[in-house]
Amino acid sequence: MNIFELSDPLFLPHCGCELQIPINVGSCVVLTGENGIGKSTLLRHFSHQISLETRVVVEQKASEYFFDRKLITLKQFFLSADLPHFNKEIFLSLWNQFELHVKEQRLISHLSGGESQALKLCLALCKECAFYFLDEPFHYLDKNRRKILITYLEQLRVSGHALLIVEHNLEGFPAGWKVQPLVIQDNILKQGDEWII
């Protein structure tokens, strides 16, 4: 079995422990827990612990550079997006599936929360990576866009990519999805066996 392992034990300063968790090829690991307990911080720790030789980390925050340019339209944004390892074919496919093409003349600063999230996801998922780290990717998405995202994430997982997703709970995931939960509860990180929702 192929396993991507964290390059070094992960030190968690808030609980004073070391942790090494293997992430299987084609697995979906979901980190859950209440607000303010360190899920996103732990996700950032994970992304920095994986050796550079085996990953290109995709973080939605990388797209925030473009969102500082408030006065350009979506179409101008798409034409000017020149990121390393940027796959315009994947970007355009997600762009159309999320129906952003109908808003391409809108100023980025005028996008709704769901439209802004969809654009960030287009950027985050348009790279060819072994690992995808996503912090609350379903946030602000309506039912249709959520379904599109779920379908695309499942395609990534089935094709051998590893997903590490932060969410408050597993309720947003579709029935039948195989996930391996990591739960932070009472300052303890618990790793469960893979199970089907």
Summarize the structure in short.
The chain is an alpha/beta fold and 197 residues long. It is built from six helices and ten strands, in the order E-E-E-E-E-H-H-H-H-H-E-H-E-E-E-E. It has two domains: 1-57 and 129-197, P-loop containing nucleotide triphosphate hydrolases (Rossmann fold); 63-127, no CATH class.
Q: How would you portray this structure in words?
A:
This protein is an alpha/beta fold. The protein has 2 domains: about 130 residues, P-loop containing nucleotide triphosphate hydrolases (Rossmann fold, 3-Layer(aba) Sandwich); about 60 residues, no CATH class. It is about 30% helix and about 20% strand. Strands 5, 6, 7, 8, 9 and 10 form a 6-stranded mixed sheet that branches. It has a two-stranded antiparallel ribbon with strand order 1-4. The relative contact order is 0.21. The N terminus is likely disordered.
Form type = globular
* Helix count, DSSP H or I runs of 4 or more residues: 6
Mean pLDDT score: 70
Order of helices and strands: EEEEEHHHHHEHEEEE
- Kindly give the count of domains: 2
Q: In total, how many beta strands?
A: 10
Structural class: alpha/beta
**Measured distance between first and last alpha carbons:** 23 Å
> Can you name the CATH architecture of the largest domain?
3-Layer(aba) Sandwich
User: How would you characterize the largest beta sheet?
Assistant: 6 strands, mixed
Helical content class:
25-40%
Highest CATH level, the class of the largest domain: Alpha Beta
Oligomer: single chain
By CATH, the superfamily of the largest domain comes out as: P-loop containing nucleotide triphosphate hydrolases
Radius of gyration: 17 Å
β-strand amount:
15-25%
Low-confidence stretches: 1-18, 51-62
According to CATH, the fold-level topology of the largest domain is Rossmann fold
